[in-house]
Amino acid sequence: MSVRCFYNSIITIEVLLQFLTNCPLLEEFTLVLFNLKNYIQLKKCEFVELFKCLSSVQVLKISRFWIEDFGVDDNVMPQKLPTSLVHLRVLVYDVSFLHEDEISCLLCLINNSPNLEKIKLEHFFVVDWGEQTFDNWFDPEDHSDLKLDHLKELEITSFYNVGYEMEFLKLIIAKSLVLKLAQIKLNPNVFVDEEIKMFQDLVRLPFPRASPTTNFIIERMPFN
């Protein structure tokens, strides 16, 4: 098996799409960009075209620095892509729950990956959460088409225990029939009393759960 890696490369979205079109058996795709303003800027239509080229991918890893600029198009991200990622088993995604565009893209990917077995969200640090709220974004009744029948493992790092983070977590748990492990790694700045309340919300208080056997692991990340 050969591996191709483009490091510190300036590339247009057109060239990237052309390259991926010629990789019909691609099983793993990682995109890590740190200065997108000078590299690639994706519009909604280009976002859709990108995942048309990744129909065979089993492992997908994307950094938030790239996700952030999905919102350059004013149109709303689609809930369904023309081509579902039916082979995708593992999704690793850097996300800030403060940014509406990133959440929209995350939900789009999850909605179009019916065979996901593992989701790992690496939460990017945000200094000021502000007063951001996304009313009803994560209401399970509003996501009736979301099915995670094969998801066994969910991991979220640098969890701040902010309202919409918890609502997203509850949405995934409510839609995952065979979820075995939900591992939450708290940001070290989360207070102990907030950690206790979070544990109570997840374990003691009733809320819709598709899998009654989910094992919750809540641990604190070390200070760097």
Outline:
The chain is built from 6 helices and 7 strands, in the order H-E-H-E-H-E-H-E-E-H-E-H-E. It is of the alpha/beta class.
Classification by helices and strands: alpha/beta
Shape: globular
Strand order in space, largest sheet: 1-2-3-4-5-6-7
Number of DSSP helices? Answer: 6
What about the largest sheet? 7 strands, parallel
Secondary structure layout:
Layout: H1 13-21, E1 28-31, H2 44-52, E2 59-62, H3 64-67, E3 90-95, H4 100-111, E4 118-123, E5 153-159, H5 163-175, E6 181-186, H6 192-204, E7 215-220
Parallel strand pairs: 1-2, 2-3, 3-4, 4-5, 5-6, 6-7
Account of the protein in words:
The chain is α/β, with parallel strands linked by helices and 224 residues long. The protein has six helices and seven strands. Strand 2 (59-62), helix 3 and strand 3 form a beta-alpha-beta unit. InterPro entries: FBD, LRR_dom_sf. This is FBD domain-containing protein. Residues 145-219 form the FBD domain.
Summary tags:
224 residues, alpha/beta, 7-stranded parallel beta sheet, 6 helices, 7 strands, 17% strand, globular
